[in-house]
Here is the input.
Amino acid sequence: MAKKEEKNNKDKKSFMKSFKAELKKVIWPTPKQLFNNTVAVLSIVIITALIVFVLDFTFEAINKYGIDKIKQSVSNSTINETTNSVNESVENNETNNTESNNAE
Here is the structure.
């Protein structure tokens, strides 16, 4: 058991030394670089948000004035066809009833 604990302590010490050594190698940005990078990121985010907003608004308008009108005209034509077929069947029944009544 003692060897495992010793090994863990060595691993932890080794890890911390390596960690500190790596942090010393990091090149941190200057305040000017940080500001420039932040402005670039915010600009790209705002431009992307505007593009998405414009596309969303455009597709919504197309849907509202284009596709809904097509759906409405298709449903109206379907209703008209159904009404016409019902009227034709009623007329056929009336004609058949009149002919059968005349035949009697």
Q: What stands out?
A: The chain has a mean pLDDT of 80. Helices lie at 2-25, 31-103.
